[in-house]
Amino acid sequence: MRCVAKSKGLITSRANELVYCVTLLGTLALGASCRSTASSTAPATPEMLALSGDLAVHDPVIMREKDTFYLFSTGNFRAGILPVRCSKDLYHWTRCGSVFDKMPAWATQEIPRARTTWAPDISRYNGKYHLYYSVSEFGKNNSAIGLATNQTLDPNSPNYRWVDEGMVVRSRPGQDDWNAIDPQLVVQDQRNVWLCWGSFWSGIMMGRIDPSTGKLSPKDTTLYNLARRPRTGAHETPPQEGSIEAPFIVRHGKFWYLFASFDFCCRGTKSTYNIRVGRSRNVTGPYVDREDVPMTEGGGTMVLEATTPNWRGPGHEAVLQDVSGDYLVFHAYHGTTGRSELKISTMVWEDGWPRVAALP
Fold first, then answer.
1. Residue 245 annotated in active site
2. Active-site annotation holds for 351
3. What superfamily does domain 9-356 belong to in CATH?
């Protein structure tokens, strides 16, 4: 769910006394999610939720429609293109379809070596769900971000149909010093909608979105560099320096918070992913960490890292905001098998900074 200036919700509950918000989707001209309003029922100490079901997930993001949570993630041909998992309570997850049966035609034509789609992001505004996703040649910035829209997330609805809206952002080797993957939409208000993205190279980028099309604004073409890490040597393919990716921005109180994943994913038990954060009073930055180090100079306060042999490389985070509190959604790699798995921690705010539970 996304943070916007205003939102409305209904309150429901489950046996464990966590209270969830159902966003009144479609009642606003431009609406997405609950504000990050803390509740007196939120636990004082963050905890990992005890999840069950189909948890074989990489690059997760969650949104709720009515009484169901929908989780979108990276997939492969066997799992379906952008697989979808469903839950009634945020704890137990089952497969409930996929966005595409095959790669979109524009994607295979634009990037023939791409084998699947990665790292989706889901939002709702202007009466539609907008799902942004990545298409890339692994280890290169020969990449693109696409968009699909739908009237509903409920596969049983007669209005359920994903519409391929085509390409939104493109990066090319030797031309762009950024990588067009890992998109995330940020709804500031009705007039100001932003897309951030990035992986390695010059780091995390942001551009203005035209709310009427869901694509980059043709009137305001400014690109903002929100975060990057130092690179000291010549570029290598795949890159070995500048390891920052998977941006996710939310608003809490007077600040915008930029979460990002540092170091390396996708190496099983040898993955070194970890989650950092910085904040800014302006959505376009500058973002600084708790020590006031700019994220454009490698700054980032640690949110979560592997501290035991049981789980390695937590990363590619998303934030689910709810009236009962906030949740950090991410994947981590099993310490023995190296397989990625869905993880969700409650998140508390202390002195204006987020804190989550440690991995077991």
1. yes
2. no
3. Glycosyl hydrolase domain; family 43 (2.115.10.20)
